[in-house]
């Protein structure tokens, strides 16, 4: 004799053995219920991992930036996919308006545009991951600010999506020590500085971990714990411009290095030596410079060294106008030729 399972009327005991493989069913605390639908906005890696975890994503709206996994995502999601890199902003909005409906939840991982309020209101729940410990460093470039200000730690925050950028309630956070990350990228053989790009990459795994766990709990029907952000602790992390794109050579060496690496790899610190234009991407401390040099003046030998307010730095990696990256030794040879 069959019986009805709470949450999914019409499933009887003789059909339970096939329920796990049904494309529109999930298991939740021993019961079976209709599979939730997530609307996804962001980079393809997260969408592919969420789909791999068994979640139903529709629509999948990809950020308008180059990223690994675009072609695979197109094959995987087919008509469910909206690629913002191939459409005008207006066309993206029309496509999402047509397909969004009322998803169970909205999930975002590095979506690069503001989500309109009408999309957020289409679902009772929307969550995204931000690469900082909110409310510190809200905004588009938290990695630059974490390095430039010399933060001792950073991390990722899973938060509720709000109409304003990065202001929604905090669900979960993971913390990382910046000094520990800095030592990690420099080991074991080649000195590699912790640049803004490498910091962002280091935050990928913990941010994906938080997003996937949130999706798992939402699919199971669990409520996510939330706490409001403390507005007194909020800071803004805009894209650097103006004086922030220059190196403060008269400052202490540690300050100079923070600025160089916060601006790496894009846009880099622009320099001109012997009429050769280049961008400095990585450097290390080096105090073996003539004391007669003023801050910002260079000393050339087999290396390129530049005076700071209390010592000096040595160039490790530079980028030429054609986009080619060269070592500090190669830069010194170029400038001497």
Give the uncertain stretches in residue-range form: 1-33, 186-190
Architecture of the largest domain, according to CATH? 3-Layer(aba) Sandwich
Q: What is the terminal separation in angstroms?
A: 90 Å
Give the amount of beta strand, in percent.
15-25%
Largest sheet: 7 strands, mixed
Residue share in helices? 25-40%
Cross-sheet strand order for the largest sheet: 5-4-3-6-7-8-9
Q: Write the element-wise H/E pattern from the N-terminal end onward.
A: HEEEHEHEHEHEHEEHHHHEEEEEEH
Rg (CA only)? 25 Å
CATH hierarchy, class of the largest domain: Alpha Beta
User: How many helical elements?
Assistant: 11
Any idea of the CATH topology of the largest domain? Answer: Rossmann fold
For the residues shown, what is the average pLDDT?
A: 88
Structural class: alpha/beta
Shape: elongated
Number of strands: 15
Number of structurally distinct domains: 2
**Which homologous superfamily in CATH is the superfamily of the largest domain?**
Formyl transferase, N-terminal domain
Describe this structure in words.
- Strand 12 (298-300) and strand 13 (304-307) form a beta hairpin.
- This protein has 2 domains: 13-233, 3-Layer(aba) Sandwich (Rossmann fold); 242-336, Roll (Methionyl-tRNA Fmet Formyltransferase, Chain A, domain 2), CATH 3.10.25.
- The relative contact order is 0.09.
- The model is unreliable at 1-33 and 186-190 (pLDDT under 50).
- The chain has a 7-stranded mixed β-sheet with strand order 5-4-3-6-7-8-9, sandwiched between helices.
- It is elongated.
- The chain is 28% helix and 25% strand.
- It is α/β, with parallel strands linked by helices and 337 residues long.
- It has 11 helices and 15 strands.
- It has helices at residues 13-16, 44-52, 70-77, 89-100, 117-120, 142-148, 178-185, 196-202, 204-220, 253-262, 328-336; strands spanning 25-28, 31-34, 37-42, 56-62, 81-83, 105-109, 126-130, 153-160, 170-177, 269-273, 276-285, 298-300, 304-307, 312-319, 325-327.
- The longest helix has 17 residues, at 204-220.
């Amino acid at each position: 004799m069959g019986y009805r399972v709470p949450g999914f009327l019409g499933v009887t005991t003789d059909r339970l053995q096939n329920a796990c493989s049904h494309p529109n069913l999930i298991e939740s605390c021993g019961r079976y219920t209709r599979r939730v639908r997530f609307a996804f906005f962001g980079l393809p890696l997260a969408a592919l991992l969420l789909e791999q975890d068994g979640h139903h994503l529709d629509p999948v709206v990809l950020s308008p930036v180059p990223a690994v996994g675009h072609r695979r995502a197109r094959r995987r999601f087919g008509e469910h996919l909206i690629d913002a890199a191939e459409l005008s902003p207006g066309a993206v909005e029309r496509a999402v308006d047509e397909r969004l409906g009322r998803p169970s939840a909205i999930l975002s991982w590095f979506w690069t545009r503001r989500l309109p309020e009408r999309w957020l209101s289409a679902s009772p729940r929307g969550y995204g991951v931000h690469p900082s410990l909110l409310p510190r460093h809200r905004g588009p470039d938290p990695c630059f600010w974490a390095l430039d200000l010399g933060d001792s730690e950073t991390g990722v925050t899973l938060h509720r999506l709000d109409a304003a950028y990065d202001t929604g309630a905090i669900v979960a956070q993971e913390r990382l020590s910046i000094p520990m990350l800095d030592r990690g990228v420099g080991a074991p053989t080649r000195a590699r500085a912790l640049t803004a790009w490498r910091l962002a990459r280091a935050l990928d795994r913990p941010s994906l971990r938080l997003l996937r766990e949130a999706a798992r709990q939402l699919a199971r029907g669990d409520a996510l714990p939330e706490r409001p952000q403390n507005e007194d602790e909020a800071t803004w992390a805009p894209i650097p411009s103006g004086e922030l794109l220059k190196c403060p050579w008269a400052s202490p060496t540690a300050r100079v290095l923070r600025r160089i690496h916060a601006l790496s790899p894009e846009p880099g610190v622009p320099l001109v030596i012997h009429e050769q234009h280049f961008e400095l991407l990585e450097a290390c401390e080096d105090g073996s410079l003539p004391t007669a040099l003023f801050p910002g003046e260079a000393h050339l030998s087999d290396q390129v060294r530049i005076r700071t307010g209390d010592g000096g730095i040595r160039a490790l990696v530079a980028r030429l106008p054609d986009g080619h990256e060269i070592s500090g030794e190669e830069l010194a040879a170029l400038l001497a030729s």
